[in-house]
## 1
Amino acid sequence: MIRERILVIGASGQIGVELTLALRKMYGNNNVVASDLREENELLKGTGPYVSLDVMNKEMLHVQVIRQNITQIYLLAAILSATGEKNPNLAWHLNMQSLLNVLDIAREEKIYKVYWPSSIAVFGPTSPKQNCPQQTIIEPTTVYGISKYAGEFWCNYYYQRYQVDVRSLRYPGLISYKSAPGGGTTDYAVEIYHEALEEKQYTCFLKEDTYLPMMYMPDAIRATIELMEAPAANISIRTSYNLSSMSFSPKEIGAAIKNYIPEFTMAYEPDYRQSIADSWPQSIDDSVARNDWGWKHEYDLERMTKDMLENLRK
Ligand code: NAD
Ligand code: SER
């Protein structure tokens, strides 16, 4: 049996912190090496090894992979949709080159498995708005979405041509209370809980009726690990799997919060992120993930809201 040694790149980010902690629980603290350009996140301190690493520096990345005897890589470093529109060149460069560096090293070093997330942002205005299927018209209009679309096909290419076992999920907007989100269009759905508790008021940068696919972080972490643990024979999609749990609008999440904080009020000042949100589907059909490797979500808006508020109050 292989003794797993896992490298998480982008471990100080919104997903990275929780995924690193979950992997450490499964594989042992010392077998999961966290890495990031940023300082180590406070929540990771003392829980296992951390290296400061720029994923764009392929040589240094390669050295770390060999030195640490890495068998699996989780690549989470990226620039997300809203920040990407402010600096398209940087977003394209980081999102593409980081993936190519990792895939190339995985091929050379015979890395056993690679994980790289895609996003609902691969879809564009011509994709179906409701229950957007796994295979459909995909014409993204953001640089982030273009990079995810190209990335999905690089993953498929490395699997087909070099047998690199790379697996991927198209995450919806992710909501969490541990580590802050890093510049996405769906970040409002995290900010709103903080502002509801602190200010009893939130001004949303999207219109009240903007529906988007969303997911609570515990579901996203579990989906990631279940996909990575699934037998290779069950993985029929080598680009990236649609993944879904809930879909709501700012008005609906506001109403869910009001059940716990009756004095909470909302205002709306849509900005440039509105057109990004409008280009994405409102809900996702993830039946292929459910059939292939048994995906099943646990959290809906009500259950997530209760858990978010309880944990943020702590
Ligand atoms: P994040 O911005 O919170 O974290 C990304 C981390 O990568 C940061 O800690 C950052 O310091 C690090 N990083 C940036 N450049 C780096 C570099 N050159 N070298 C090493 N590290 C670097 O992002 P996240 O929300 O955790 O997203 C992780 C992945 O999941 C990304 O690929 C993102 O596109 C994808 N995703 C996220 C969401 C979401 O809602 N959070 C939804 C869909 C897809
Ligand atoms: N949450 C992400 C974003 O808004 C979706 O990939 O950019």
Note: The two ends are 41 Å apart (CA to CA).
## 2
Amino acid sequence: MKHFLKETDFARAELPKLFALARQLKRTRGKRGAPKPLLGQTWALIFSKSSTRTRVSFEVGIHELGGNPLFLNKNDIQLGRGETIEDTAQVLSRFVHGLVVRTYDHAEVERLAAAGSVPVINALTDFLHPCQIFSDAFTMAERWARGTTGQALVDSLRGRKIAFLGDTACNMANSWILGAALFGMKISLAGPKGFAPSAECDALLAREGFDPKTAYNFTTDPLEAVRGADVVYTDVWVSMGKEEETKQRIRLMSPYAVTGKLFAAAKPDALFMHCLPAHAGEEVMPEVLASPRSIIFDEAENRLHMQKAILATLAAKRK
Ligand code: CP
Ligand code: NVA
């Protein structure tokens, strides 16, 4: 059973086919004869946290692939009242063809995958957000690739540099570190002392065959990180579940706000990206969000196309 809990659940060799499929699904969206690989299937979305992009793109994507999305707020099912993850996984596996899960503890998606008998997709945990990284990588590749094949798209990422600023210990930072290693990209993260990528992130890199000492660079100097960058990336300073730390985080992270001046220190054709939702005037200034080199809405749209490719791939491997 193939799951998508972390970036490396796709091997490098599988990426060209996946990217080609995302491109094809984007081009054929809404056209007659668009593929329906989920015909007759129901996929459950179990969410413990808020979501706009992930929820809507999965619900629309499953529907467009011929399937039926079933949205379940964790608190509306017995999981929210203490039924075990293992029993929930086994019961749902008797009804549905796949699970898309947004939760806090990353171990929960792993336990659902281990106990159930249907594919599980990680729709964000406190540790990783792989659907976002794959959609972002596809968005970059659309800008950079010389050709239109899946191989050309994937090859266009190799050697490019991402600067990740702000909360360098959050799920997006961890996921981009693993994603950069998988795609052969360089990543430099700049954030406050005490927000260096965790030992857990390093352990994951090592388990997946990458050397944590060379896979990324962490600095407290935002200028060092953006120098030579092809992409300047940021995320909210207060991730879901961290609301109690809001004041302290804003104080510590304010030197890492993506200002026009900081963005100008990256390559002249550098792109600005943000997984959204954004807080204009906090982690990024309005002029950067509105810049012609800001591709935040292409990035959001591509969640739909890349996730449809992921759903179709997992459904095909299930047979
Ligand atoms: N980027 C992202 O995952 O957005 P949502 O929280 O709105 O799903
Ligand atoms: N780091 C953010 C990402 C939101 C898409 C959070 O976890 O809230």
Note: The first helix runs from residue 15 to 28.
